[in-house]
């Protein structure tokens, strides 16, 4: 059910969360059948798709028109009709959503604190936030938020996945950029 | 359902697959409701436990008496009665199992080729093998097997997870040993 | 000349920069025969020792009495009489030094900006600063400084070294924590 | 003296050892003023160049004509006349060299054992071999050699270097493939 191969997504030129990171993100988000999930900076929609196969409703927030089209195409390809795409730059677009169980943040456009403040008001005890950080400034800003805001317990990991590539009779390690995954649970 | 916290397992001194590796292993194994899973070198049983919450039947093969006791305790703690523990050194103990959907190999005691030959006869098209390698010799031996045996397609990754640790006002990265996860599917 | 084995240093319980990181740090610092080097947060003095074998003069700044004793012992062991130990918490202790060619920062005690401001006044064009960061907050603070202060060009790497350990007939990778090395050159 | 920037080398399309790996390789090789160094699979000659700035004589063995031209051009650019290029596929080309202090192996073309057997006869006690492995089969083969041949003590590390890249106001980690550096000293 979880862990769709990268090649199965319609991609274009929009960067996509790699399979292993997607798996860890979705599992750490602990998505349940009845959950409402927000995917912020949804990109190709790969996280939205994986989430929508488990959750009741997924809202994908994305500002890039090219990416929005990819999310639509992927939702259709995977036969999912529980994804609502919001064409906005978060935190815009979040006000209309009243109750959030899970927030996935793949891109925050430099507005992480505002986004966290906005979703926090819509999250009850037990709700989860999972942030995939590719910049160290985002890591530091997110950790600062969760350290100052005592309503959360959190953990964070940096993951680096090297793919073994078979070349001739040999296998070499091909690197992918490391990602930091921060998981916070509202107390 | 997937991704039990490390602390929840009863452990003792037996080494245990860390949560992120466990998550990736179980997802890559693509365990389905009706599946029969073999966990070879089961250790504390952490992979067996995660597998047994999804699969129909799990056989945990383990030679170390201390580890066997931990598997029993963990199966009880997590209320799972679909785990059968086989006190043997694989490939011993595998002959009695006729049909295998998934093989998880956490430890092979230097007998990887014999183990693969034995399980291969009991696997049909579409069955999966996931090997967690901590030594480079095991990686090379496993890749050799899957390259020579044309009945499998496979992929392999090296994963390194650094935990962010909060110390005073700072967060530092605490390393864990890298693991290689090899996933092979019988054609 | 460069790259003393870790075991050769007298250590005690003070954390020590590992050999590979020490090598990269000293080479990136581009220490020359006539140079004056400041080693801030000198710890066991391992960087001071390596630097003093090349440079004209090394000032080791350290606040921990146990560490100071180790620096003294190591300077004696390696027959170096061009190391002056300053028992202070940087930026204290830096005012007396007029001309600095190289600054090595292994520990900044949360006062990185003050330290950089203080050494900057004593550095001429072409002088180098190399910072070993183990916390992500220090990385972000250092990069912020070099991005805002247009008098520097810089580069930064995260290095992770896994040691291959021979166990029985096998070799496994044993991880060490990743370190970020930031190298800045005054324009 | 050591640690030439990657951009300073004339490169073409031939793969080149990255600066950090080059630094660690040369330091671990412990090259001294009077040494004779063999660089096997010399590629662009970046290791040969760094070695020739310290050693008495460097022999660069390379089979690819495009690479040989690059070595010549780089030797000229860095004003080094102590590099002799041998157009051969090692172990061919090694017979003429009687006394070897340091062997650098960047590429072995699948003939590592033969190469090691050949250089071994030309190395005296205290001589060093440093192998940069990009495939896991080469790691295993090299370790097997040094474990079976009791005339060597060795150590091995896997190094992964992520470059911090400044994009907008942010810094992200850009991965390079991990390399294994094996250092063996003849007893």
Description:
The structure is a homotetramer of 187-residue chains. Chain A has 187 residues and is α/β, with parallel strands linked by helices. Chain A contains five helices and eight strands; from the N terminus they run αβαβαββαβαβββ. Chain A has helices at residues 19-29, 46-52, 65-77, 112-120, 136-148; strands at 36-40, 57-62, 83-87, 100-105, 123-133, 152-167, 170-175, 179-186. Chain A has an eight-stranded mixed β-sheet with strand order 3-2-1-4-5-8-6-7, with helices on both faces. Chains in contact: A-B, A-C, A-D, B-C, B-D, C-D. The interface between C and D is medium-sized, with 27 and 27 residues. β6 of chain A pairs antiparallel with β6 (152-167) of chain B, so a sheet runs across the interface.
Helix/strand order of chain A, N-terminal first: HEHEHEEHEHEEE
Average pLDDT for all residues of chain A: 95
Care to count the β-strands of chain A?
Answer: 8
Can you give the helix content of chain A as a percent range?
A: 25-40%
State the major sheet of chain A. 8 strands, mixed
Helical stretch count of chain A? 5
Radius of gyration of chain A: 16 Å
- Assembly annotation: homotetramer
Estimated share of beta-strand residues of chain A: 25-35%
The largest interface is:
A-B, 27 and 27 residues
Distance between the termini of chain A: 29 Å
| Low-pLDDT segments, ≥5 res of chain A | none
- 3D shape of chain A: globular
Structural class of chain A: alpha/beta
Write out the strand line-up for the largest beta sheet of chain A, numbering strands in chain order.
Answer: 3-2-1-4-5-8-6-7
């Amino acid at each position: 059910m979880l862990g769709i191969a990268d090649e199965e997504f319609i991609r274009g030129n929009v960067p996509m969360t790699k399979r292993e990171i997607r798996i860890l993100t979705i599992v750490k988000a602990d998505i349940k059948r009845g959950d409402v999930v927000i995917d912020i900076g949804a990109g190709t929609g790969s996280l939205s798709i994986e989430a929508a196969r488990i959750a009741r409703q997924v809202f994908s927030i994305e500002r890039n028109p090219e990416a929005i089209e990819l999310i639509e195409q992927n939702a259709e390809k995977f036969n999912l009709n529980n994804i609502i795409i919001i064409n906005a730059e978060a935190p815009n677009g979040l006000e209309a959503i009243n109750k959030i169980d899970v927030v996935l943040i793949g891109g925050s456009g430099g507005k992480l604190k505002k986004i966290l403040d906005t979703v926090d008001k819509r999250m009850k005890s037990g709700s989860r936030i999972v942030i995939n950080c590719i910049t160290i400034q985002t890591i530091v800003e997110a950790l600062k938020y969760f350290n100052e805001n005592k309503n959360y317990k959190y953990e964070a990991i940096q993951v680096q996945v090297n793919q073994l590539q078979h070349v001739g009779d040999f296998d070499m390690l091909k690197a992918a950029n490391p990602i930091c995954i921060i998981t916070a649970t509202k107390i």
